[in-house]
Amino acid sequence: MSTEKFFNVRGPSRTGSSKDALWTASIYFKQNQDPAQQWAMQELFVGPGGGDLLAPGTMFGYCRVQSLRVNIGDCQFRFDRIDATTFELPILLQTDPTAWDDGFDPSDQVPECLCLAGEIPVSALQPNDSNPDWTAQFAGIIDSPGDLTVTSSGLWISGQAHLPWDQAALVNPAHFHVMVPLPNGGSGDPNLVVQLDRETQTQASADEFAASFNHLNAALATGGNWSRLELSNPTTIPSFFWMLTPSVSGSAPTNQFQLGPGEMSLLLFGGEPGTGGTPQTFATASVNPVFTRAADGTLSVHVTAGDRTSPAKAVYTGSPTTESIELQNVKAGYDALTAATLLRQQIGLSDPLVNPDPAALWGCVVLEDGWAQLPFLNVSESIYASAFPPPDVASPVPAVILAGAAEYGNDNQPPASEQTWTVIITSGAGLDGTWTLKLTAGKLTVTGATATLFDPGLELNGFLWLGNEPPTAADALPSLSNWLAAVTMIPLRSTNPNDLIPSPWDLTFSSLKFARQPDPFAPVLGNWSFSVQASPAWDTLIATGFFPTLADELKNRPLVWRRHPHLPAVQSLPLTQSLNPPNYPSPSRQFAPFQLGLTGGKSIRTIVLVDQPGGGFPPQFVTLSDAN
């Protein structure tokens, strides 16, 4: 004869309670008559010196199942023991050892137990007549689900997977784990993770999954020339899972298909295609993709990575035929030593050690139809070494998600109507994008893509040009007559907290857009603009006291020289000439000066410089303001 002792057992839970456990069961162990008080269970404990650590209250035994409840969403599925001959199952349980009463007795209430190992096949139990159809919860994920089994990790089912880019489910069945996600949103989060059980997968099933993922990779390759997605290792089956939102309050279940970390990459391609169509430069980022299939069969792949909060962005928009990249609110600095050396050479000055005279070097920046005379600090290596001594501890390097470099520009084939320029993307802090694929003529292809790279690291060439000729009595502005050597390009690059020579100016590009053209391959530059503002390095340099005359020198306010809309195209007395008599045929005679006013304060803080084809008249073209 025997006595039954019932235990309440639960599976994984979001809060550690049976109230929101994925499954709960009532099981019992047998107590034999001889020897007396012997239960078909044993308490286990392995101390810290053992291999696997089991806490006190860990029990192993052979049990029988009285009843089982499976909870998916707000649906409950109940299964009961068929008869007293139900087979015995091995199970490993864990309970709080302090919850036991002194003196174990069959009449005592056994504390709730957590299942650590073991499984209960539902096929051994009788489903309740009022049960809803549990297979409907997995619609769109698994066709013909069956073999429902509860395990220590959640549920275990079989069926034919339906991957979101395939029109029909796979032919060969496989087994899947259904688990509570970690971390999760607590008791109010009904989501479940459905993941392939690779240990029980047959070779035929593995081959079919591999072929399906190759189909996806081929479809993603139909995207644009500048950017596309691809599987990181197309020769293997990547890690993947479905995030299932089960039925709640009568709603239909939904799901999102996701790949594991490192399984998909975003590629940026730059430069003209070389041999075999291979691009000259590229950058790559590991992304976290989420696949969603619409009712009309459209497949969306939403990818994210890193920190996506910066206002500085590089926005890609593309399709197989048209592509463009727009830089928005990106900040760059110039090489202060290169610019100062160039301007000193024009007027025959040597490098200053301290207290440079003059403090400001006036350089002529090329505009679309004129010049802007702007102040550059007269700096040298010794001044920077004094103002910026090496720190004891370097500033932390910002986390980046992009590796490599993608270069775009027209330096290989510059058109007659455009200056030579390049934009090089070297890094980024975060990424957010969406690729759209549709089935056309039986073939899945990319129809559109958008991606935003946050806080991009950039190198910009061809957007800041200084005239090479010094001012003379014949003409205060440089001449473009010797067009091969008339101007020098000053390179720009993204600011970095660890720069040894930080830029005194921050050049912020509110918008800089370029688009791909099929023939030639070089992109076409669209409208662009930037503002110039004193950077923290400007304040640090001024604070050194090396520029005591700067405030007086800046009383000669910056000038912008452009064509006046109401004066004659050629003036009889060029305003840029101080010869007496004015007999030099000045090429600048069509320019009129526009002085940039300051209101309050003593130092230039912000210059807004806009270079737009067909831009407006100077009051909207260039402005200068004092931020103090």
Tags for this model:
6 helices; five-stranded mixed β-barrel; 628 residues; disordered C terminus; mainly beta
Mean pLDDT: 82
Radius of gyration: 36 Å
Give the overall silhouette: elongated
Beta-strand percentage range: 35-45%
List the helices and strands and how they pair.
Blueprint: E1 2-10, E2 23-32, E3 38-39, E4 41-46, E5 54-72, E6 75-81, E7 89-94, E8 113-117, E9 119-121, E10 125-127, E11 142-151, E12 154-161, E13 174-179, E14 192-196, H1 203-220, E15 227-231, E16 240-245, E17 254-259, E18 264-270, E19 281-293, E20 299-306, E21 313-318, E22 323-328, E23 330-334, H2 336-347, E24 360-367, E25 370-377, H3 381-387, E26 402-409, E27 422-427, E28 430-440, E29 443-454, E30 457-461, E31 465-467, E32 487-489, E33 492-494, E34 505-515, E35 524-534, H4 536-543, H5 550-553, E36 559-563, E37 591-595, E38 606-611, H6 618-621, E39 622-625
Describe it for me?
With 628 residues, the chain is mainly beta. Among the domains are: 2-132, no CATH class; 328-390 and 399-625, no CATH class. The radius of gyration is 36 Å and the shape is elongated. The chain contains 6 helices and 39 strands. Strands 19-20-28-29-21-22-34-23-33-30-27-26 form a 12-stranded antiparallel β-barrel.
Task: Give the gist of this structure.
The protein is mainly beta and 628 residues long.
